[in-house]
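Researcher: Please translate sequence to structure tokens.
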Amino acid sequence: MNKLSQTYHVPVLLKESVDGLNIKPDGTYVDVTFGGGGHSQEILNRLGPEGRLYAFDQDVDAVQNKIDDPRFTLIEGNFANMKNYLRLEGVKEVDGILADLGISSHQINQPERGFSTRYDEKLDMRMDKNAELSAYDVINHYDEYDLRKIFSQYGDLKNAATLAKAIVKARSEQPIKTTGELNAVVSKHFPKLKMNKFLAKLYQAIRIEVNGELEALKKMLQQAAMMIKPKGRLSVISYHSLEDRLVKRFIRDGLFEGQPEKDFYGNIAVPFKKTGKLITPSETEIVQNPRARSAKLRIAERTETPYQL
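Model: Translation complete:
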């Protein structure tokens, strides 16, 4: 792995997540969140000459980390469209899919991307630099009701209504163009001793909306159920309760809301079954990589149950 890859993003739960794929040397695998390539490289290390790995990343910066290996293909696109992209590559089924959700260290540490609360930069937060919707659009054009909904649902902010009202009032006088200006508007409504924690929640909410992260995750999980072979594996690392809840629910019930159908004997036919307990990082890993602190890994095996949208 090149030097840029090592600084771009430190892979979380590396061994545990790749172990969870139960890799076959001649299998076909997908890493839907390539980033710095840490998980991809570990998968390649375990594949034989006939194995294949396809990786996805919608951030053009990640292309710089592309792995020079004939068994590897990097697809520059959103994993929400995984099935169609793989079909274009001639791939109809795979042996396993790995996802390390959330934001990369590289994206946080690039001030101009607007992901971090630490810098005063333009409001952006787009993972795909070519996407139309930015954080600026959300903060300056969404109505008060929608802002309140986003802050509450995606950031779990109890004072979402107050924050939405403050933003609408401030932008009526002049547009809120930068992260610094946004921080100045909302900071008076957060406790000083926990300012960073609450700003992080606010930025998370905006980022999820800008990038359509939860809808993309739902689509990926549904497509995973269609593409992973029986006995194949799904390995997903999430970083906040919204993501983890979707992953947990889909593995358990094969859907995201409502009640699953039961057969005459009360059994539920689902596309996945969990392979073990929830996995979290060790204290050693958290010390070495603080970003791992909130990570949760769920691993599931594909059942024989057919699945269609």
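Researcher: Any highlights?
Model: Confidence is low (pLDDT under 50) at residues 1-6.
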